[in-house]
Specification:
Helix content is 50%, strand content 18%. The chain is built from 13 helices and 10 strands. An 8-stranded mixed β-barrel has the order 1-2-4-5-6-7-8-9, surrounded by 4 helices. The protein binds ligand C2E and calcium ion (CA) (2 copies). Ligand C2E binds next to strand 2, helix 3, helix 4 and strand 6.
Length: 291
């Protein structure tokens, strides 16, 4: 019966009307997930998750404008778990709000320090899970964290994916408008990989579009990738939005994006995500990258 149960959960996981056969690998996978889940619970209780920051370059001034906050989890034995693995786990098991809250708290405290020291000129971007948008007290939490840290709301930008919004457009729109009223700006993350509904993008109260890595990595050789990047840029600029290109890894990509009049770029070509202690020096010692 236990084996049948394991297979049933796997089938449910993959969507409805599926048939899945039991296998011992399935048990291992379930057990691994359970172990990881209980470790994640522990890490959240002990507030052990950390945040790294990836600098964001302004392609016009060649200066570092700001950065994106990315959560990190290093287990007691020193191994690291990728957010791509533990964020979905936190979402599935009701831990994402606590996780998001801890990240936001850390980032706001950090923002206070960096703005006092004049390190950054733009808002720090924080990723938001679709579940957080649905959480009834999310807005209150956001206000509390901002007030507690004594930061200006304009120092924070929330990154939301299209799919997060499309799950429940009316509700998401309401929350997004309220976020905006607070003075916190919103960026549409991974743009072009989800539903990309143009009728909605017109109404979303957003300030920034982020061109997904998949469209950046084939620049400039793939003429289709060039066409998509150009289109997203003209769409963004036409709507008075800032456009950020993600996952810029080579000088050729950076050069092409600059020529296309892209506003900001992020990626390993400029900088990898780094611990907060390295950011100040990185920004101060920054010599404009060759583009
Ligand atoms: P994302 O928001 O699209 O973040 C960009 C990811 O690309 C990051 O991976 C970053 O380290 C990586 N990256 C940056 N530049 C380059 C590059 O030039 N080349 C390549 N190959 N990769 C690059 P990371 O940190 O592993 O995060 C993965 C995803 O996990 C994020 O994707 C985001 O969706 C989610 N995530 C990360 N931190 C948080 C968080 O605090 N809250 C929530 N809800 N999600 C988060
Ligand atoms: Ca992001
Ligand atoms: Ca992204």
């Amino acid at each position: 019966m236990r084996h049948a149960d394991v297979a049933m959960y796997k089938a449910k996981d993959e969507g409805k009307n599926k048939v899945t056969f039991f296998s011992s690998e399935l048990v291992e996978a379930v057990e691994k997930r359970q172990r990881l889940l209980s470790e994640l619970r522990g890490a959240l209780e002990a507030e052990e998750l950390t945040v790294v920051y990836q600098p964001k370059m302004c392609l016009r001034t060649n200066m570092i404008a700001s950065c994106e906050a990315l959560v990190r989890w290093t287990k007691a034995d020193g191994t690291t778990v990728s957010p791509a693995e533990f964020i979905p786990l936190a979402e599935d098991f009701g831990l994402i709000n606590l996780l998001g809250y801890q990240v936001l708290k850390t980032v706001c405290k950090q923002a206070r320090q960096w703005y006092d020291a004049g390190v950054l000129s733009g808002p720090i971007a924080v990723n938001l899970s679709p579940r957080q948008l649905k959480e009834p007290n999310f807005l209150q939490q956001l206000v509390d964290v901002i007030n507690e840290a004594g930061v200006d709301p304009t120092w924070i930008e929330l990154e939301i994916t299209e799919n997060a919004v499309m799950e429940d457009v009316d509700r998401a729109l309401k929350v997004m408008h309220k976020i905006n009223e607070l003075g916190v700006s919103i960026a549409m993350d991974d743009f072009g990989t989800g539903y990309s509904s143009l009728s909605y993008i017109r109404d979303f109260p957003i300030r920034t579009l982020k061109i997904d890595t998949t469209f950046v990595s084939d620049l400039p050789s793939c003429s289709r990738a060039v066409a998509i990047a150009k289109t997203v840029l003209s769409l963004g600029h036409g709507l008075d939005l800032q456009v950020v290109a993600e996952g810029v890894e080579t000088q050729e990509e950076a050069k092409m994006l600059k020529e296309m009049d892209c506003d900001f770029a992020q990626g390993y070509y400029f900088a990898k995500p780094m611990p907060e202690k390295d950011v100040t020096d990185f920004v101060r010692e920054w010599k404009a990258a060759e583009i």
